[in-house]
Amino acid sequence: MAVTVHLIDGTYELFRHFYGLRRFNSGKDRLFGAVVRVLNTLLQMLDEGATHVGVATDHVIESFRNELWSGYKTGEGIDPALRAQFEPLEDALRLMGVAVWAMVELEADDALASAAAIASRDTRVQRVCIWTPDKDLAQSVRADRIVQVDRRSRLVRDAEGVRAKFGVNPEFIPDYLALVGDAADGYPGIGGIGPKGAAALIARYGAIERFPPTVLGERQMLALLFKRLATLRTDANLFANVDELRWRGPTEEFAALCERLQAPTLPARATNAAARVAASTADPRN
Asked: d(Cα 154, Cα 272) in Å, to the nearest integer?
């Protein structure tokens, strides 16, 4: 049976739902409101046909990259009401029966890149969908087999889509970001080089390591440092077999958790979704 693997950026989803709720709650944050919204998002995906899912989170915001560049993003300034929902989200996902990778030394993006690489090596996997708008995950896209999905726009970006947006092939996204910078991650890029200029340089010379010394001059080492920041790790040992990502329904403890989350409708919804997933993945030979 052909399998589609869905990989979700849990940290992005938590941020997205937290600030989405805040627009309407007059500053009165529900204790686990964003957590409940993320769980509902996962159940919606399962309702719509997803069977194999994994969620990556930044258990802590800092990673090895903070040791490489002092300006790299940190957890400083995160709203305490949002910060308090990180671990409850991870716990809730586990009790809902979802594979969750809570990253400490690496980032959620590294987990997504690693999971995509592992899943794509399985011949049963027809497509891997990485659900995040983050620019750096574009480097994981491969043809139309590993794609990036923007949840808000529902835009599916394959390799051709990456080239259309950035002007470079997916494998050159770290070089591209090193040159133009990434404000979300906290590194500025190389002054005077914008998106068109970066794409033109890469088209002419390839990877930054192959740039003639006269192109960047003494800034080449800085560009290579930024490329290291932008390059996602793909060696995280997250799972051995995509069967581990097949969702089999919530655990027995999920209903009690939903009471604490003040989300009484989630257990029945999860049970119904589990029945649909089981039916869709049943071996017709049995």
From this structure: 25
Q: Among 46, 106, 129, which residue's Cα sits nearest to residue 229?
A: 106
Q: Which residues touch 204 (CB under 8 Å, ≥6 apart)?
A: none
Model confidence pTM above 0.90:
yes
| Strand ranges across the sheet with 155-157 | 99-103, 52-58, 3-9, 125-131, 146-150, 155-157
The answer to whether residue 270 scores a pLDDT higher than 50 is yes
Model confidence pLDDT, tens digit, residues 153-174: 889 999 999 999 999 999 999 9
Question: What residues are paired with 55 via a beta bridge?
Answer: 8, 100
Question: Where do the domains of the chain lie, and which CATH numbers do they carry?
Answer: 3-161+233-281 (3.40.50.1010), 165-230 (1.10.150.20)
How far apart, in whole angstroms, are the C-alpha atoms of residue 223 and residue 77? 27
Return left, alpha or beta for 80; rule: phi > 0 is left, psi -120 to 50 is alpha, else beta: alpha
Q: 């910078």: which residue's tokens? A: 181
Q: What is the DSSP string of 58-123?
A: ESSS--THHHH-TTS--STT--HHHHTTHHHHHHHHHHTT-EEEEESSS-HHHHHHHHHHHHHTST
Name 92's Cβ contacts closer than 8 Å, sequence gap at least 6.
Answer: 35, 38, 39, 257, 261
**Distance (Å, whole) CA 53 – CA 8:** 8
